[in-house]
Amino acid sequence: MQDFWLCFIPLLVAVDAFGTLPLFVNLIEGLERSKIRRIIVQSVFTGLGVALCFLFIGKWVLYYLGITVADFMIAGGILLLLFSISDLLIFEKRQRQLDLESLGAVPLGVPLIVGPAVLTTMILLTNQHGVYLTVLSAVANILLAGIIFWFSGILTRLIGKTGAKIVSKLASLLLAAIAVMMIRKGIVEFL
In 10 A of CB 10, how many CB atoms? Predict the structure, then answer.
């Protein structure tokens, strides 16, 4: 059970559903509840599809490119660190005009629920804890993101926009620490 939590927590931080909540609320503002439900379902299925495909195909791609686990840990750690620093320093995420038909797939499913941070974390977790626990943790986190979006109205009223921003910044800080750990482990494995 402890190994599950060692997979679940880094992915929880990488998915950052609470951090994405204010952006989600802005994107769905004024939409009918039935359209919002369809967008949430689309985002969850898109996120699951991309995450699982990358998990199984991504490792082969890395193998054929000659990229070692240590290489990926260092590169992935640097990317995660940059993403977390960027999120810590940027105060507002930009919003563009979006197509309602694909809103659940892009940008919600990819890259907001499953982006580079999640993909990198999954590859690294697979090497540390195996495919089964990584898949289980990824599915649980993506479904949790869908549940958080489903109850976005209630959650926004409970924690407020400021509370959501605070949770997002704390998650980014944790992601930075996880990134440093990955870089350190990659360097140790390389040496």
Answer: 26
Q: What is the pTM of this model?
A: 0.76
* Cis peptide bond upstream of 10, omega within 30: no
Helix, strand, or coil (residue 151): coil
Give the separation between CA 166 and CA 174, rounded to whole angstroms: 12
**Number of compact structural domains in the chain:** 1
pLDDT tens-digit readout, 20-51:
887 788 788 789 999 999 999 999 999 999 99
Domain extent at residue 115: 2-190
Phi and psi at residue 32, to the nearest 5°: -70, 150
CA 166 to each of CA 27, 33, 115, 151, 154: distance values in angstroms, whole numbers, following the listed order:
20, 27, 21, 19, 17
For 128, half-sphere exposure in the C-beta direction (CA atoms, 13 angstrom radius) is 22
List of residues 6+ apart from 167 with CB closer than 8 A: 18, 19, 159
